[in-house]
Amino acid sequence: MNPSTPAEIAAELFRAMNARDPAAFAALLDDAAVFHFPGTKPIEGAARIEKFIKILFFKYPALAFDASRVIADERCAAVEWTNEGTARDGAPYRNAGVTVIELGEGGRVLYLSDTFKDTSFTIR
Fold first, then answer.
1. Which element (helix H / strand E) includes 99?
2. What is the pTM for the complete model shown?
3. Burial of 73 (0-12, 13-18, 19+ CB in 10 A)
4. Spatial contact of 79 and 70, defined as CB atoms under 8 Å apart
5. In the CATH hierarchy, which fold is given to the domain comprising 6-116?
6. Tens digit of each residue's pLDDT, the chain (124 residues)
7. Taking the domains of the chain in order of start, what are their residue ranges?
8. Which residues contact 23 (CB under 8 A, 6 or more apart)?
């Protein structure tokens, strides 16, 4: 499948997360992509975002997403999701949130922004 709409690309991003495949995730990003993740400064560039995803997978050796709702237009998508997993220290983890994506002119993700219901894990 060659995803082309924001909804299709959003689905591929979550497939890559559930497959624990940072390279597949990064392949959907524009080189100039910016990722806003709670508790961090904006992460700029596809390579840095891929590295961040690898760190996330290290911190959470088990983490699965269920994307339950997608609202999209011709350039953007908002995905409502829940996730569940286990942190490296064995503690259970569960959260819910929304990821917003925007495609650039080349049809790749230029902007990602996560909003979580529980942000107690973030550094303040």
1. strand 92-103
2. 0.91
3. exposed
4. yes
5. Nuclear Transport Factor 2; Chain: A, (3.10.450)
6. 577 899 999 999 999 999 999 999 999 999 999 999 998 999 999 999 999 999 999 999 999 999 999 999 999 999 999 999 999 999 999 999 999 999 998 999 999 999 998 766 654 4
7. 6-116
8. 50
